[in-house]
Design brief:
The chain is an alpha/beta fold. The chain folds into 3 domains: 216 residues, Rossmann fold (3-Layer(aba) Sandwich), CATH 3.40.50; 66 residues, Luciferase, Domain 3 (Luciferase, domain 3, Roll), CATH 2.30.38; 101 residues, ANL, C-terminal domain (GMP Synthetase, Chain A, domain 3, 2-Layer Sandwich), CATH 3.30.300.30. 33% of the residues lie in helices and 22% in strands. It has a 6-stranded mixed beta sheet with strand order 2-1-9-8-10-11. Strands 15-16-17-18 form a 4-stranded antiparallel beta sheet, with no helix packed on it. Strand 1 and strand 2 form a beta hairpin. The longest helix has 17 residues. The radius of gyration is 23 Å and the shape is globular. Pfam families: AMP-binding, AMP-binding_C. Keywords: Ligase. Belongs to the ATP-dependent AMP-binding enzyme family. It comes from Sporichthya brevicatena.
């Protein structure tokens, strides 16, 4: 029974619910539910979605906070044969409208309309379950019109262009990758996952959640991350599997409550970060078997990962070996494979996205004729076949575990009436994270006034995490140029950080 059989989430949910109906599946602020209860609620939601006109292969949007409703919403959409569209709840109206226009969901589940799509009583969360209810729900899930190659998720992620990329992921890919990740982490029967990052990102919806599901584990999910509340929650729920990023790890380790909270149940998980961040997770938080990984949305979040049994120095300094579900290679600028120890471009193939939604030009640029996906990242393999991630070959900013496209932010900033040009880049912080930095080019003499005004203006138009935290105003003649006459963003970044202008 362990790991759970099945190649789609409805099949896996039916298998766990039939074998362990009373095992707790979800613990959240909006409720707790066993596998049997989630199976009944997902089947009931699927029926209501179909009654609302949802057909197999349609898209169902999830514009919900982290919690039980989010999990049931995803699994109910899958049980109806639909592709789930996790929506970023931090979007401003214009950003949300743009995504909805491209994705065209048949239905969008929100906190306001969710209960109307519930079970017989119209409330998914409070629906009571009998043994017969669970048996009937499991039969519904087993016969769900969702196949291994059908789409399970459509995720919008910032890329190197201004417009977010729409990344489809399949049922089979989602399930197989989750099994492989859990095996590397050493997930055990009875484990309890802690997760407090947004479920709408790949790290949640195509990694932590299906990982817990395919291993019959409990997903303990918080609506948002706050260090003191997280430490109390981990202690109370006796969580064993840690899903965190560098800022989360450092915030938990630095919080005074850690001294009197018992988080010793934490054992394994993933904490993608620098060697120092992995050391903090292992030594200060006690996540002794925590793993390091490399991945991106197009590869279900993880393409390589260390093993929980690797020595700590291996887990701190490498991103591990490729998962059995994927191939990973390093190539030079000419596209030929690079030898071990040589830094080159990371490419992946196998259980990855079948291609961007309605974007033939993006797909041509991203995929080679032999099916290898060009990640845009740099790395190298050591003699043991472990990946060492070097960095991004393009200028993506990663802040608090979230990818931010400089081009997307620049495209907005130049819309301000007094901004002639904008150059956006990452600025390293003392915690090892990145802030969004921006140089605004303007003819005004009121540099301090414009910098503050543009930041306030941007905050009303884009998600808060994309708003520049460090802003400088220069005139055009102060911009450093390359020999070909182009502005050098690298030199510009060094110039403003060194001068402190």
């Amino acid at each position: 029974m362990f790991p759970v059989p099945g190649v789609t989430t409805p099949e896996v949910l039916a298998a766990v619910a039939a074998a362990h109906p009373d095992r707790e599946f979800v613990v959240a602020e909006d409720g707790r539910a066993t596998y049997g209860e989630v199976a009944v609620r997902a089947a009931a939601l699927a029926a209501r979605l179909r009654a609302a006109g949802v057909q197999p292969s349609d898209r169902v949007g999830l514009c919900l906070p982290n919690g039980l409703r989010w999990v049931v919403g995803l699994l109910g959409a899958h049980a109806a044969g639909a592709c789930a569209l996790p929506l970023n709840t931090w979007y401003k109206p214009a950003e949300l409208d743009a995504v909805l226009a491209r994705a065209t969901p048949r239905v969008v589940l929100t906190p306001e309309n969710y209960d109307s799509f519930g079970g017989p009583d119209g409330d998914v969360i409070s629906t009571a379950c009998t043994g017969d209810d669970i048996s009937s729900a499991c039969e519904t899930l087993r016969s769900a019109p969702a196949g291994e190659t059908d789409l399970a998720l459509l995720l919008f992620t910032s890329g190197s262009s201004a417009e977010p990329k729409a990344v489809p992921l399949t049922q089979g890919g989602m399930v197989r990758t989750a099994r492989a990740v859990g095996e590397r982490q050493g997930v055990r029967d009875g484990d309890r996952f802690w997760f407090a990052l947004p479920l709408f990102f790949v790290f949640g919806c195509s990694n932590a959640l299906p990982n817990a599901l395919v291993h019959g584990a409990t997903l303990c999910v918080q609506e948002r991350f706050e260090p003191a509340a997280a430490l109390e929650f981990i202690e109370r729920e006796r969580c064993t599997v840690y899903y965190g990023v560098a800022p989360v790890t450092r915030a938990l380790a630095a919080h005074p409550d850690l001294a009197h909270r018992d988080v010793s149940t934490l054992r394994t998980g993933t904490a993608n970060a620098t060697p120092e961040d992995l050391r903090i997770a292992i030594e200060k938080l006690g996540v002794t078997d925590v793993c390091n990984a490399y991945g991106l949305t197009e590869g279900h979040g993880h393409s390589t990962i260390t093993s929980y049994s690797d020595p700590p120095e291996i887990r701190m300094t490498t991103q591990g070996t490729p998962l059995p579900t994927q191939e990973v290679r390093i190539v030079g600028d000419d596209g030929t494979p690079a030898p071990a120890g040589t830094t080159g471009h990371i490419q992946i193939r196998g259980t990855i996205t079948p291609g961007y939604l309605d974007a033939p030009e993006q797909n041509t640029a991203a995929f080679g004729p032999d099916g290898w996906f060009r990640t845009g990242d740099l790395g190298w393999f050591d003699d043991a076949g472990r990946l060492h991630y070097v960095g991004r070959s393009y200028e993506m900013i990663k802040s608090k575990g979230i990818n931010i496209s400089p081009a997307e932010v620049e495209a907005l900033l130049v819309q301000h009436a007094e901004v002639d040009q904008a150059f956006v880049f990452g600025v390293e912080t003392e915690t090892g994270d990145q802030d969004v930095g921006a140089v605004l080019v303007s003819t005004t003499d009121e540099h301090d006034r414009l910098a503050k005004e543009v930041v306030d203006w941007a905050r009303e138009r884009i998600s808060t995490y994309k708003v520049p935290r460090r802003t400088w105003v220069l005139t055009a003649d102060q911009l450093p140029l390359t020999p070909t006459g182009k502005v050098s963003k690298r030199l510009l970044r060094d110039q403003v950080l060194t001068a402190g202008t």
